[in-house]
Design brief:
Radius of gyration: 67 Å
Shape: rod-shaped
Order of helices and strands: EHHEHHHHH
Structural class: mainly alpha
Strand content: under 5%
Largest sheet: 2 strands, parallel
Length: about 270
């Protein structure tokens, strides 16, 4: 809730102008209703939420005379000077027409001329009052300075918010950069691991030349060993044949010698008988 000492301050006058804009254009009230609302606010209202949608409290109401003076300065003179001036010109035109018609005797009624003079005099009095309550130039200067200060403060606040947003964005960008760097490092590690796996798979499917050379050497060694085993087996067969032949020869010699001995032992008997 906003609290003001009186409406005669620069902030109070600015509030009155804002209220006129709100009632006249936002809420689409007519001029008479708007003037009555604002006059009551200037003279005796303390809590504006009773009259308008503003949470503002006035500590010291201005009263009838000071409030009416402020109302004339800030509302009537600022926003209704041109229409009142137009009415004054219209009254002057009506007065000139009445005087002219009275001179040429088209209208020979003095009452119409007197009425036109009275109306023009009243309009001039109203214009005098409106011009008499012209707002002080110091108030306008203070209002302009206050608006300029408010605009400067708003600009500084917006610049501060923009700087804060840029700082937060820089922090986020730095975090994203660190995260991307970590992702790139992990990707490099995964790439090296994948390359090693591919090389191992290729090595398993297609052996390298050194392994092929070793396998060829093993094949030649196995062939030589097979040939050596074959030669050894042939030699063993030859030795076996020789041993068998020797054994057979020995057995034959034994048999032959036994037969020969038997024949020699039986031969003398027939010779003795003869």
């Amino acid at each position: 809730m906003t609290t003001l000492e009186t409406l005669s301050t620069a902030a109070g006058r600015a509030l009155l102008r804002d209220l006129h804009q709100e009632l006249r254009f936002d809420k689409q009230m007519n001029s008479i209703t708007t003037l009555s609302y604002l006059w009551r606010i200037c003279t005796r209202e303390t809590d504006l939420f009773r009259t308008v949608n503003r949470d503002v409290t006035i500590l010291h109401p201005l009263g009838l005379f000071s409030g009416t003076s402020l109302w004339m300065q800030e509302i009537v003179n600022r926003f209704y000077y041109a229409p009142i001036n137009a009415f004054v010109y219209m009254g002057a035109a009506i007065l000139l027409v009445a005087v002219g018609l009275n001179r040429i005797r088209i209208i020979d009624t003095p009452g119409i001329l007197v009425a036109a003079i009275i109306i023009e005099a009243l309009l001039l009095v109203v214009l005098f009052l409106v011009m008499f309550f012209t707002p002080p130039s110091e108030i306008d200067a203070q209002s302009s300075e206050a608006q300029a200060d408010g605009a400067t403060q708003e600009l500084l606040r917006e610049l501060g918010e923009i700087g804060r947003d840029y700082a937060a964005m820089a922090v986020q960008l730095e975090t994203i950069s660190v995260t991307l760097h970590e992702v790139v490092e992990r990707q490099d590690v995964m790439t090296r691991q994948l390359r090693d796996s591919v090389e191992a798979a290729v090595g398993a499917v297609a052996p390298n030349p050194e392994l092929m050379q070793a396998m060829k050497q093993n094949t030649h060694a196995l062939a030589d060993f097979s040939e050596s085993v074959t030669l050894l087996s042939e030699r063993l067969r030859a030795v076996e044949r020789q041993e068998v032949e020797g054994l057979v020869r020995q057995e034959l010699e034994k048999i032959l010698s036994r037969n020969i001995v038997d024949r020699d032992g039986s031969a003398p008997a027939p010779s003795s008988k003869s």
